[in-house]
Amino acid sequence: MAKRQWPKWWTWELELTPHVYKRMLDRSFTEVDLRAMLERASDYHPDDIEGRWVIVSRHRQRTWEVIVEPDGDAELMIVVTAYSLQEET
């Protein structure tokens, strides 16, 4: 099986939005956790909102999605939000 080709924006510096900082508090994860999720990412696909992408990863034995919006002018990968696909028990 061929290794997943990631887009050029995948290596750009991250910028975190105020929204994702709020979600970190709400969903009990840190910036370190978020960066680790991105390092472990297994897949990506376009989001429903044009210009945004869904990054699929794992954290705390659950599947998570991280929503990013690449900024080609600034060469930044802006992290919009992150959430688990499974409920915590």
Order of helices and strands: EHHEEEE
User: Order of strands in the sheet with the most strands?
Assistant: 1-5-4-3-2
* Range of strand content: 35-45%
Terminal-residue CA separation? 35 Å
**Regions with little confidence, pLDDT below 50 for 5+ residues:** none
- Which shape, going by the Cα principal axes? globular
Number of helices, counting only DSSP H or I runs of 4 residues or more: 2
Work out the helicity level.
Answer: 10-25%
Structural class: alpha+beta
Main beta-sheet annotation = 5 strands, mixed
Mean pLDDT: 93
Rg is 13 Å
The count of strands amounts to 5
Write the layout of secondary structure elements.
Layout: E1 13-16, H1 18-27, H2 31-39, E2 43-46, E3 53-59, E4 62-71, E5 76-84
Parallel strand pairs: 1-5
Antiparallel strand pairs: 2-3, 3-4, 4-5
Defining key terms:
alpha+beta, 38% strand, 21% helix, 5-stranded mixed sheet, 5 strands, 89 residues
